[in-house]
Known about the structure:
By secondary structure, this protein is an alpha+beta fold. Helices cover 28% and strands 28% of the residues. It has three helices and six strands, in the order ββααββαββ. A six-stranded antiparallel beta sheet has the order 1-2-3-4-6-5. Residues 2-10 have low confidence and may be disordered.
Amino acid sequence: MTITASPSAPSVTRLALELPWDMRSPAAARRSAARRLESAAYPRTADAVLVVSELVTNAVRHTRGPCRLVLTDDGASLDVAVTDYSEDMPDVHQPPDVDRPGGYGLKIMQHLGDSVRVVPRIGGKTVHVTLRIPVPPHDRRRPP
């Protein structure tokens, strides 16, 4: 596992992890994301860590290769992105099959995230889940 933190701009928090195709990768991703988000005092850490867990678990379960997790916080939202090396696209509109275990990960991400999008690329795809960062009450501007 490779961890990269790039301080590209003072207002951007970034974490990038290269994760092996291994059932331990979701747990490693959860721990790393939780540490980074807690140290940045991110207000939706629990939601974001659950999204990380679901995305990485899906990459491990449904592909046959490593994946890359990238968290990017621009001050207004957190983008949780997982890139894998499978060109099979998830059907984000299909309801879970009640006769089979699992299948609820995308529904969880759609519920927690403000947007879910799948970006295809040659040799794989990236699934992005965006979580808006709530504005603290003292930062809200009053209408003129």
